[in-house]
Amino acid sequence: MKFIKNFFERTEPLVQKGAKYSWLGSVHEGFFTFLFVSKDTSKSGTHIHDFIDLKRTMSIVVLALVPALLFGMYNVGFQHYKAIGELASTGFFGIFFYGLLKVIPVIAVSYIVGLGIEFVFAQLRGHGIHEGFLVSGILIPMVMPIETPLWMVAIATAFAVILGKEVFGGTGMNIWNPALVARAFLFFAYPAQMSGESVWVALSSSDKVIDGFSGATPMANAAAGHLNYSVADAFFGFIPGSIGETSAFAILIGALFLIVTGIGSWKIMLSTLAGGAVMGLILNAASGSEALSAANQVYFSMPFWHHLILGGFMFGAIFMATDPVSAAQTEKGKYIYGFLIGILAIIIRVINPAFPEGMMLAILLMNTFAPLIDHYVVGGNIKKRMKRAKISA
User: Fold this and answer.
1) SS3 for the chain, per residue?
2) Backbone CA torsion sign across 308, 312, 315, 320
3) Cβ pair 187, 199 in contact under 8 A
4) pLDDT, position 74
5) Helices 92-125 and 54-83: crossing angle, nearest 10°?
6) What is the pLDDT averaged over residues 96-107?
7) Mean pLDDT of all residues in 134-158
8) Dist. CA 240–CA 235, nearest whole Å
9) In this predicted structure, what is the pLDDT of residue 107?
10) How far apart are CA 148 and CA 328, in angstroms?
11) Which of 54-58, 202-206, 310-314, 366-370 has the lowest mean pLDDT?
12) Closest among 174, 188, 74 to 130, alpha carbons compared
């Protein structure tokens, strides 16, 4: 790595203000700080420095996403060979590399488009390139169906970066999770390509699927009144779904890593799961109502903990709801914020048949109300302190 560092140090004078290539200053600094610790130091006043900066925070989140991403690659190949009836005759590496070759282009498009736009905005504004898209760039592919066309991924990424983040001022200023903004844009702009049975399993026009094959997700089947999956397959992730959302087991490994390192908020994770469980229990209690259709009876009576391992609920609770920028910031507010996400996600997915997966909408809605939650929590604390001050006086 020393020769790379020497290259950046030799070329640094060429990108300084007034130099020949000054217009590449932000790009030069962005790549240098991505690979090495920034050389900027405090020059005056009193400063307290933490060893955890934005770059290290983003790097830890990416590492936590690796188990879900790797399993997602394997599951893409698993679902493909299962659909064409060749699963038993295909080895582990054949399955994995098929998924790898399918997923890598989606990741590449996300990073190329997203980072390209970030570089342009950094140059226009004359500031350094932030590391915020390091996480968003991998989250966007992981919440997409594998059959999403690459041009749609590019458009959604551009929409998320420009209208979901840069218009608010860039990293740290956005009010919504950028990855979910990309997913929501595609969901409402191109609903046919983001739903149905054909978008979750990678198949070419020449592939001949076996008789009785269905590419529907367990959530779509549950909404139709069919619970045709095993709990083990749902927990470990051997089911159709978005690239990185199917395996609750792999996601929990990432959650443990985030909690141990102190990067992810366990309060939001726990309260989101609690909110989903409580709403699931309420639906279980109402499952005997004669007003429900046969399909709704099945969905309402589904064990509450099944909701936590199906669809994007676990992925959203661990990696999306805990986004430090768009989530609630106060400690009490984190409990309220997460609990309401869990409640809303289950309500949307069960009550509204048009949205069998409600986690995306629940998080985006609560992103909007997170500042309001913090406002009332802070206001409540101020009132308590004022009351104690009056009593002591």
Assistant:
1) CHHHHHHHHHHHHHHCCCCCCHHHHHHHHHHHHHHCCCCCCCCCCCCCCCCCCHHHHHHHHHHHHHHHHHHHHHHHHHHHHHHCCCCCCCCHHHHHHHHHHHHHHHHHHHHHHHHHHHHHHHHHHCCCCCCCHHHHHHHHHHCCCCCCCHHHHHHHHHHHHHHHCHHHCCCCCCCCCHHHHHHHHHHHHCHHHCCCCCCCCCCCCCCCCCCCCCCCCHHHHHHCCCCCCCHHHHHHCCCCCCCCCCCHHHHHHHHHHHHHHCCCCHHHHHHHHHHHHHHHHHHHHCCCCCCCCHHHHHHHHCCHHHHHHCCCHHHHHHHHCCCCCCCCCCHHHHHHHHHHHHHHHHHHHHHCCCCCCCHHHHHHHHHHHHHHHHHHHHHHHHHHHHHHHHHHC
2) negative
3) no
4) 96
5) 140
6) 95
7) 92
8) 12
9) 95
10) 32
11) 54-58
12) 174
Contact criterion met (CB below 8 Å) for 178 and 161: yes
C-alpha–C-alpha distance, residues 141 and 106, integer Å: 6
Q: Is 366 exposed, middle or buried (0-12, 13-18, 19+ CB in 10 A)?
A: buried
- What pLDDT digit, counting tens, does each position of 256-298 carry? 999 998 888 999 999 999 999 999 999 888 877 766 766 677 7
Residue with tokens 């994770």: 269
Say yes or no to pLDDT of 100 above 80: yes
Structure tokens at 53: 């900066």
Place of tokens 């309420």: 282
Which whole number is the average pLDDT over 174-203? 87
Confidence of residue 300 (pLDDT cuts 50, 70, 90): confident
**Type of residue found at 320:** M
Q: What is the pTM of this model?
A: 0.85
